[in-house]
Amino acid sequence: MAANPADLSAALVLTPVPAADWLVVLPPAWCLLVGAVLLMLRKSLHLQALIAIPALAVLVVIDALLLAHVAANGPVTMVMGRWLPPFGIAFTADLTGVLFALAGAVVAFAGSVHALADIDASGRRYGFYPFLLLLMAGVSGAFLTGDIFNLYVWFEVLLISSFGLITLGSEPRQIDGAIKYAFLNLVATTLFLVTTGYLYGIFGTLNMADIAVKAAAGRAELPLMTLATLYFLAFGMKAAAFPVNFWLPASYHTPRVVVSALFAGLLTKVGIYALLRTLVMLFPVEREELSFLIAIVGVATMLLGALGALGQSDIRRLLGYVVISGIGVILAGLSLGSPGGIGGAIFYALHSMVVMTALYMAAGLAGRLAGSFDLNRLGGLYSRSALFSALSLVLFFAASGLPPFSGFWPKVMVAKAAIDIGAWWLTASVFLAGFLTTIALGRVFALAYWRAEVRGLPAQSIPASALLPLAGLTALTVVFGLFPDALLSLVQHAEQSLANPDAYIGSVFPGGK
Amino acid sequence: MEFPFVLLIGLFFAAAVYLMLSKFLVRVLLGVVLLGNGVNLLLFTNGRILREIPPIIPEGHDVPATLTANALPQALILTAIVISFSFFAFLLVLVYRAYQDLGTDNGNEMRLAEPEDDPLPPTGY
């Protein structure tokens, strides 16, 4: 052995990793660890929430620290098993990934508190909190990984946890929704795997920074359009883009309300993140060529979402269409590219994570107060709780994109980017979709909140554990609507580092490539 | 050796798509399984199919003297097989449960979550 000492520094990272860089792998590792502990303690129902809620608060802190680290020092990379990239699996956190991860953690934390009032003992016995933690492991891993096959694995982690969550309770309605959700999502991730197989055949590497370098070098002779189009289809299906979005309105209203809230905040946004990562960072030239198609899909998605919302009488189903409408705006931003469009897409996705989660929570509370989710029967919510009604109205305005709430700024960014390149029809559809959403949600307020109560219902009060997370998320949308400067500059930096990934590549290959 | 595998993968995909277009869940399920296996074969073929050539680098060389099969896609399919198998197990249970609870395996008749006679929202107060 010692006769021929190999030069290990060619293959391994030999210097110890700085303590701050461990933050990159901590979010998924922490969630997996706590999830495993919760699984072991699944019989102790009273301990589940006691462990899960502080653990998710810690996750928020970890992601916030990581955001501060990345904002100060640029993208951070850590490799598994010390193997140098592209051989080892790399975790690379850049601003886009960290912003998504932080928003996801905040949403999950709010959901875990809200679940105290919404998930009963049987839900806890069937493992709501372990599933939630494992879902967060998948979501955080997907946002932070720098390896495309690893991204596939995290997709599957979050998918199988979401199957557990969507069937929690096992009512026939849920089984019906879960069938459609499970089959179509599985086909989408299989499509992702097909594309990744092609990608490995073309590049011989799975590291995203390596792919970005090799794609830029060999663009002329490589069949990259195939990859970009297939990724657009696979991730578009995950993100619920028209015409592969019909799994969402078929399933999102069936599980427990807090599960719907978490799904609306987290799952489609993972698809959006993967779209941004592949199309903007890896295949920017191909995205440019696809931009007209992406714009058409975006317009169809946002209009279908808004029209669908107008036609629903169940407020949970209505919100499912509002989620889809938001995806359309994000796709419009994606089609416009940098500058402005990508930033608008990232900002809108972050806004949508917070607001859609809060809206589903509000819908759940409305159903609890008025005893129904049906617009034909709802009424009198304003007389029952003025505070809850005020919070709901703020969320309705935010989701419609009205100022001064957080939905306004990303729409302005997308609309301005569209006008700058003369795509007036894209701007017009963003405004039309916003207008139709305002009507749909305004009608919910008029009917469910303002209309006089139809019949006497037993007086119900809202538990603080259900109202606090709703108020917290609403406060976020108000704060980022009134003071968008900090988030705007972060988002613009994220956009630049995504569109020009030199810093990302430099963090994976410090010695140059 | 790759060419027959390419044909086989094509057959797998064609059969999978055909089965998934059915409205009966058991056929869709079989289609999903075939699709997963087709993808596994695709990954496998990506890494070259060569028999009995161990990937051993002779002394004094930096790379193998002859072409060998790439081991990484084989590691990838190992992951993919485990994942697609566990999903198959879950879907099998889900479909069986759906058959028990909903009394049908016909997708067209599963309208519990989206009832056909769902009322429209009211047009006035």
Task: Give the arrangement of secondary structure elements.
The complex is a heterodimer of chains A (about 525) and B (about 120).
Chain A: H1 26-40, H2 45-73, E1 76-79, E2 90-93, H3 95-118, H4 121-125, H5 128-144, H6 148-166, H7 172-203, H8 208-217, H9 224-238, H10 247-251, H11 257-282, H12 284-310, H13 315-336, H14 341-370, H15 381-384, H16 386-400, H17 408-420, H18 424-450, H19 464-482, H20 485-499, H21 502-508
Antiparallel strand pairs in A: 1-2
Chain B: H1 2-20, H2 25-46, H3 71-102
Helix pairs in contact in B: 1-2, 2-3
Query: What structural class do you assign from the helix and strand content of chain A?
Result: mainly alpha
- Summarize model confidence as the mean pLDDT of chain B: 88
H and E string of chain A: HHEEHHHHHHHHHHHHHHHHHHH
Largest sheet of chain A: 2 strands, antiparallel
Report what the structure shows.
The complex is a heterodimer of chains A (513) and B (125). Chain A has 513 residues and is an all-alpha fold. Chain A is built from 21 helices and 2 strands. Chain A has a two-stranded antiparallel sheet with strand order 1-2. The longest helix of chain A has 32 residues, at 172-203. Chain B has a domain at 2-52 and 69-104. Chain B has helices at 2-20, 25-46, 71-102. The longest helix of chain B has 32 residues, at 71-102. Classes of the chains: A mainly alpha (513), B mainly alpha (125). The interface between A and B is large, with 46 and 39 residues. Chain B: This is Na+/H+ antiporter subunit C. Chain B: Keywords: Cell membrane, Membrane, Transmembrane, Transmembrane helix.
